[in-house]
């Protein structure tokens, strides 16, 4: 088992090689697809990639699927509840249109359901449902080795945005249940969707519970966090954007409009953008490059 720790635009990839049996879990964002293929090809050392598995279908976890399928035609597993959306390539149901993100079209061969078992790297892995961040997400847990591939259900310091709550659906309760399930699994090692693998799992779960309690007390906190995450993701993708172009993207993204209407209607989208950019600049997630007339350019600093 080999973990490719990627940046925040692309989720981590986990490659398994057991003789001629090869498999990859999650494939990163579409703009990094050539890099993903190159990383996997180098590690495979002439072997073909036979299987591709997705913990969930957010664009940063499956954006490389199409390129990998062109290169090796691996048999592809996706969460079972996403089958109809992928078959029809429904970008609304898959959230790509809502978030203003890109994902190359891909196909699937098999489905993952809670309680299923997969063999990866000569180890048996249980499929564990992980709603909260994404209602259809799954994790993979190896009971014998006590390794958990958590996707965005648990990071060393938190978890992914609770997207269902942004659209008026339940997500906080589900995320709390997932954290309880992770605690019960008693994993020795967690491979998160983003960030380094870690072993102090109990401490990570407690930090995540604290973060969830903070967000749950005021849903607007989750909304503000989501806006920052989505803007940062867009800047990671583009690397450099004029402020007016970034504002136009926000105004066009359906999820941004929904957040604005539901949680921040007293502010203009321009004000929300200004507040978000100040916050990101304050933690050095972006830098103001300069001004062009009355409009500033903003550049993401990796």
Short synopsis of the structure:
By secondary structure, the protein is α/β, with parallel strands linked by helices. It folds into 2 domains: 216 residues, Ribonuclease Z/Hydroxyacylglutathione hydrolase-like (Metallo-beta-lactamase, Chain A, 4-Layer Sandwich), CATH 3.60.15; 82 residues, Arc Repressor Mutant, subunit A (Orthogonal Bundle), CATH 1.10.10. The chain is built from 12 helices and 14 strands.
What does this structure look like?
The chain has helices at 33-44, 59-62, 65-72, 83-88, 96-99, 163-166, 172-185, 201-217, 219-238, 243-252, 254-263, 269-282, and strands at 2-4, 13-18, 21-25, 51-53, 75-79, 110-112, 117-120, 123-129, 138-142, 147-151, 189-192, 240-242, 286-292, 295-300. The strands form three sheets. It has a six-stranded mixed β-sheet, covered by helices on one side. Helix 7 (172-185) runs antiparallel to helix 8. The two termini are 28 Å apart. It has twelve helices and 14 strands. Strand 2 (13-18) and strand 3 form a beta hairpin. The chain folds into two domains: 2-217, Metallo-beta-lactamase, Chain A (4-Layer Sandwich); 219-300, Arc Repressor Mutant, subunit A. By secondary structure, it is an alpha/beta fold. The protein is globular. The mean pLDDT is 94.
